[in-house]
Design a protein that fits this description.
Number of helices: 8
CATH superfamily: Vaccinia Virus protein VP39
Strand content: 15-25%
Number of domains: 1
CATH class: Alpha Beta
Order of helices and strands: HHHHEEHEHEHEEHEEE
Strand order of the largest sheet: 5-4-3-6-7-8-9
Helix content: 25-40%
CATH topology: Rossmann fold
């Protein structure tokens, strides 16, 4: 049963309609009616997201939690999806891609162990949300997106939100990395891949780490942390099972 009849939309004020959508999707912040009237809906939904979906599941890094409180996820999804921006799920974005579930963004960011001033390579820009979270934590982010129109959208969004100096966006094959800006303190891959790309291992600093969804099938991957020792040896740590959209291009699943 629908939450409201479609002919109501013409007479319901936008703020009330948005609150109804948030309530129906389970994303409504926990607040009473009087308090709710005087608070920004999206801000409260975002704070509630961090409290329940991220910190509530064990992401403890204060810098990660604060960054995710500040970065407005709804600005990184299409207008049609903004009412669901702070829900506990991935969402579709342009060009048939997705923005990851907030918890997964928080977990991967925590696993990367970002420090202010770190140089981070991201493979799979998507809408730019993960890059914005990393930049909010003080990282210098170099992010690659193989789908050029998506790279253009992400670049415009990030620049419009004031991240132009901290985030560089390039349309290109993430498997090959961005060697002219390496080596990197950390690398995050936000698409499914069946092996750790050798060029990225070369571009990773000693003691650096790669966080990625690693697996042989599109149906299931394992979120994995790969750490590079001073001597160049790699260690692998499996974290949780995940499902990501595949890496495309000549070295991807397709």
């Amino acid at each position: 049963m629908p939450l409201f009849r479609m002919d109501w939309i013409k007479i319901i004020p936008r703020a009330i309609l948005l609150s109804l959508l948030l309530l129906g999707s389970g994303c409504m912040p926990e607040t009473g009616p009087e308090q709710f009237k005087h608070q920004d809906i999206m801000t409260q939904a975002r704070l509630n997201m961090v409290k329940t979906q991220i910190a509530g599941r064990g992401v403890n890094s204060p810098t990660v939690l604060e960054a995710m409180r500040r970065v407005e996820r709804h600005l990184f999804v299409p207008m049609a999806e903004r009412s669901f921006a702070y829900c506990d799920s991935a969402l579709p974005i342009q060009q048939g891609q997705t923005i990851s579930q907030p918890y997964i963004v928080g977990l991967m960011t925590e696993l990367l162990q970002v420090q202010p001033g770190d140089k981070i390579l991201e493979v799979g820009t998507g809408s730019g949300y993960q890059a914005a979270v990393l930049a909010q934590m003080g990282a210098q982010v170099f992010t690659l997106e193989i789908v050029e129109p998506l790279a253009d959208i992400a670049r415009a969004t990030l620049q419009g939100l004031g991240y132009a100096e901290q985030v560089m966006v390039k349309a290109g094959d993430g498997f090959m990395g961005w060697p002219e800006h390496g080596p990197f303190d950390g690398i995050i891959i936000t698409c499914a891949i069946h092996k750790v790309p050798p060029p990225l291992i070369e571009q990773l600093k000693p003691t650096g780490r790669i966080v990625l969804p690693l697996g042989q099938t599109l149906e299931y991957q394992t979120l994995t942390v790969v750490t590079k020792s001073e001597s160049g040896q790699l260690t692998f740590r499996n974290v949780i099972g995940v499902v990501f959209v595949p890496m495309t291009g000549p070295h991807g699943f397709e």
